[in-house]
Amino acid sequence: MNTEGATTEERQLAEMLRRVTPEPPRGLTVEDVAVRVASQPGSGRHGRREPHARQGWPNRGWTRKWAPALAAGSVFVVISVSAGAVVGLNSSSHHSPAPAPGGQGTASGPASSLASSPSPAQTSAGPGYAPKQVANGIWGAELISQRKPPFTQDSLAGGADSLYALAPGYLDRINPGTGQVVVQAPYQASGTEPPVVAGNTVWAVSSYAGADVVLEGFNGQTLASLGSVTVPVTGQLAGTPEGVIASGPGGNLYVAAGSGVAVVDPATRQVTKRIAVSAGPVNSVAVSPDGSKLYVSTGSFELLTYDLAAGAQSGSAAIADIGSFGGNLVATAGGVWGTVGVGMTEWAWFAPDANLTQLIRVSQAVGAGADSVPTFSGGTVWLGGSHTLECANPDTGQILASVAIPTDGGVLEHFGRVTVTGDHAYAYYEDQRAQLSGVAALTTPPAACSG
After folding, report:
1. CA–CA distance, 122 with 172 (Å, rounded to integer)
2. Which of 39, 174, 211, 451 is deepest in the core (most CB within 10 A)?
3. Distance (Å, rounded) from C-alpha 293 to C-alpha 288?
4. Within 10 Å of residue 324's Cβ, how many Cβ atoms?
5. Which run of H or E residues covers position 35?
6. For residue 239, what are the CA distances in angstroms to 59, 117, 341, 448?
């Protein structure tokens, strides 16, 4: 109402009418939607899942992955106006992540399929993080990246010039020089299987349940989705999957798919071969560095060797008195590495020439903070955990260097899944007492660990 030129009485009357007359309805704003989503009943009532409590990944009785009570972060809401969709995301570890847009679920179908609509990645500038010395600086350990909610424990993987890790609802690419998460892609992981880097593609398991294993590929730089591959399962999937996907030197992917191993050509996204395993469901696979041999572990402590050229079994070894299974296989020129556990004890082992009768117990941890899986990177085998950080000769199993991991006020600290990228070593790190979790750079590892 225009009151210009009106008398004092007229302006007072106009003001009174404005106060008692309802305003016309206004359009729904982004702020309105955010408030309504944040105030929905039941928000925040779901607790954090343990790493092995996800669908299709049963709990391992003897593994003790950490679930640190990291400080809760703030809730934020991402709103897509054009799509008319609202996705609630929570940076606290006490909430389950929202489904990723375009995410792949368990599917059944032909031997393989390619997603027709790749989902874009999300570029993240992310705040900088000043390096922080951790664990008294053993081997020059510095925390270079901290994330809330934290990365999935021991999901760190290395590429030519990048690091990759899983986080609730995302796959992240990390700049190893700065520790900054430079790109993240919406992605719902199935379990805690770390991503596998093959050339310029990152592969991750999006479903490991039912009648299929589903893999999803991402561009190594942009993390744009390159499509999914559905691998039908023969028989039943292993109840204790640990290392169900491996990459060979020729670029092929090897997938534990029930009572057999499927060979996938990443270029065509087709299952090109199936290797039958009569000993039972396959729970872990590894390929020799020269690409000639495939190693398989089953539900018992049994290690099988296959000639990849012939596709036939060429060897087997077993230990009957362990009472557990072998998993997390890693193949080197000298033999096979893996883990085994009974009760509250977990240890890493090395079998020269894949012969379990000559097995060497490399390291052992008891109780919480059990040893991390062995990794072969930079010409060296690395073993972490919460007691010692070690590097070993990949051909003989001999420990080359070892350092005790200190506690923080009596609370365990953890280093796991060491990977070498750009001639520098990095590890997943956790300190429960200080509520620190992220990527640590090992800036001064012993020369013996150089491979």
Report:
1. 10
2. 174
3. 5
4. 20
5. helix 30-38
6. 9, 32, 15, 38
Going across the sheet that includes 196-198, the strands are 196-198, 201-209, 212-219, 225-232
Query: What residues in the chain have per-residue pLDDT under 70?
Result: 1-128, 321-324, 342-345, 365-371
Question: Which own/partner pairs from 97-102 qualify as long-range (CB within 8 Å, at least 24 positions apart)?
Answer: 97/168, 97/169, 97/170, 97/188, 98/169, 99/188, 100/169, 100/170, 100/186, 100/187, 100/188, 101/186, 102/186, 102/225
pLDDT, one tens digit per residue, over 187-239 is: 988 777 899 999 899 999 999 988 999 999 999 999 999 999 999 999 989 88
CA 99/CA 55 separation, integer angstroms: 14
Q: Can you give the residue ranges of every domain in the chain?
A: 1-48+76-99, 125-450
Q: Which DSSP symbol is given to 297? A: E
**pLDDT tens-digit map of 141-189:** 999 998 888 899 889 999 989 999 999 999 999 999 999 999 999 998 8
Which pLDDT score is estimated for 129?
Answer: 74
CA 82 to chain CA centroid, Å, is: 31
Residues 6+ apart with CB under 8 A from 104: 115, 206, 207, 214, 216, 228
CA 266 to chain centre: 20
Dihedral of alpha carbons 422, 156, 346, 364, sign: positive
Number of helical (H) and strand (E) elements in the chain, helices listed first: 2, 32
- Residue 450: closest CA among 416, 426, 423: 423
Query: Structure tokens of 226?
Result: 């390159």
At the fourth CATH level, the homologous superfamily of domain 125-450 is: YVTN repeat-like/Quinoprotein amine dehydrogenase (2.130.10.10)
For residue 447, give the DSSP letter.
G
Would the CA dihedral through 365, 370, 375, 380 be positive or negative?
negative
Sheet holding 170-174, edge to edge: 122-123, 181-186, 170-174, 163-167, 157-158
